[in-house]
Write a sequence for this structure.
């Protein structure tokens, strides 16, 4: 079994060799530009690790991992348009550089390319993998729509936010693991346990993401600290603060959300601290992580094979960037 | 064998029963709205007719026809955003009614839904059908990008325009026919002849489309006559006129393309008539139609089975709406 780091390196080498058509260059150069931005390649590596949990990595797992990473990048291209995000990893987002119309189409053709890679696998697996891939793809779209709907809602409940994150983030991690496990020959029970592990891991991952945005070390965290607060984004922290803050805190929070106060980030962070949202978030993250680990524990393979997934899970939820 | 009209009615009944998920309604209601606009359903019926050319229509052909129509509608939703089109079939386009962000996502999830329907077919056909479907989908995206690139070019050659129309319009007609033929059990030679028939038919169809925009009967043609001229769209007619007009005509045409002259449409139409672009277009259409018919003739099935396709081809290229 190989560590996340090693598989991530191997996958990056593999993925960088991907060759898109050359013409029309006005369509494919933007896609090349976007893919060259890099990334942690977490999802495709989860697919490879899902396979390696039960057996040596099959060529089909590389095809599906490639499809997953293409799909993930398709969603990022379209999400950046919807979020009106000028930057991605510190450089111009695709639509900022090439225009919205090309970004729509460059995303579309990247999604079609993902299906091309799915179609490279052994025919006996095609129906099942396509089914899982489509379900995850649909749920990610649904999650993104719900997230956009939240921008217009005054208040969002914890359960609704949890459901949204489940769709937008967790299902793709879960499906990546499960597709890998299927291709590795895992039994149905193990496949499903791995899926549930991925879902919980995704939730823990998102809590950490929301936490870092508010309390991350500006020197280590790649993005602007407080970005979610400035964008009035619903996060685990904000939703909790709206419930847990005292009356004056709630009132101040509501009025800050509507304001352009230059001290907005610090004032909101103070309310978060006063209502102990930071501690609560760390507990919540650990709850999801423990839940994930319970599912992993239940999987019927020798525990040595689970080590890379355990390490990855801890890395994903303790990371400071 | 059944006529286009009958199959179109049957397909519409089938397609109208399609049920999308209910939640989130903010995502699926827009898709329902768009699909309810209706349409001629040409592409899915071509799939059914491709099947019926060789054998009784199989259940799989209905699944693929549904996927094709969903794919086509996905392209229309995204194209309307790119073209900044406020209307589709006389009512608000999806993005005009629900916003661009939802329109991007509603298109995305419709494309994923198309793949769900592809995945319903017999597993033995899945790889081949998915391959053809993906190729057509990719080429349609490429054609749309090239079409957008043309908007920024001063002049476009006839060959480049032909290539663009081939990608944007013809390949989906061709692939629809071919997928139907495969599911009906046609041999490879017949499949390919039918594909070439579809490609030529698509070109004839587009010539007619461009012709009607300029010379259609305003009472019969659903859209505003001269719409392409007002939008400075490259068409078969404009490209021909730039080649065939006399020097003063070319000069006037170039200056009209840059102007907002209220008499622009009539002046451009006059140049088209003076340089006999109308007659040329009818000849070009017939050339493509004859080419299509030659391929159909070559297909090794009894000619009676070809009648519905012949009728449809003539209908598509003599239509006045």
């Amino acid at each position: 079994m190989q560590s996340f780091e090693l598989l991530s390196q191997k996958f990056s080498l593999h993925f960088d060799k991907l060759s898109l058509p050359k013409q029309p260059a006005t369509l494919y150069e933007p896609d090349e530009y976007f893919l060259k931005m890099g990334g942690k390649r977490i999802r495709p590596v989860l697919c490879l690790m899902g396979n390696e949990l039960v057996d040596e990595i099959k060529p089909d797992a590389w095809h599906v991992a490639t499809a997953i990473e293409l799909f993930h990048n398709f969603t990022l291209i379209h999400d950046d348009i919807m979020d009106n995000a000028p930057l991605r990893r510190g450089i111009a987002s695709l639509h900022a550089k090439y225009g919205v119309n090309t970004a729509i189409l460059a995303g579309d053709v990247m999604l079609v390319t993902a299906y091309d890679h799915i179609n490279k696998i052994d025919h006996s697996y095609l129906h099942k993998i396509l089914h899982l891939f489509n379900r995850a793809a649909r749920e990610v779209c649904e999650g993104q729509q719900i997230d956009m709907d939240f921008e217009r809602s005054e208040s969002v409940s914890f359960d609704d936010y949890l459901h949204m994150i489940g769709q937008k983030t967790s299902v793709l991690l879960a499906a990546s693991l499960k597709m890998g496990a299927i291709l590795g020959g895992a039994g149905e029970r193990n496949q499903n346990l791995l899926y549930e592990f991925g879902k919980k891991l995704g939730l823990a991952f998102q809590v950490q993401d929301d936490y870092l945005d508010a309390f991350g070390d500006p020197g280590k965290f790649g993005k602007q600290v407080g970005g979610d607060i400035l964008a009035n984004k619903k996060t685990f922290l904000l939703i909790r603060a709206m419930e847990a803050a005292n009356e004056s805190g709630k009132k101040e929070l509501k009025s800050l959300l509507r304001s352009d106060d230059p001290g907005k980030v610090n004032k909101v962070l103070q309310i978060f601290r006063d209502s102990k949202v930071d501690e609560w978030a760390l507990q919540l993250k650990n709850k999801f992580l423990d839940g994930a680990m319970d599912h992993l524990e239940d999987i019927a393979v020798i525990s040595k094979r689970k080590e890379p997934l355990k390490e990855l899970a801890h890395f994903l939820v303790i990371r400071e960037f």
Notes: The interface with chain B takes residues 21, 23-24, 26-27, 78, 81-82, 100-102, 104-105, 107-109, 111-113, 115-116, 118-119, 123, 126-127, 130-131, 134, 137-138, 141-142, 144-146, 148-149 of chain A (CB under 8 Å).
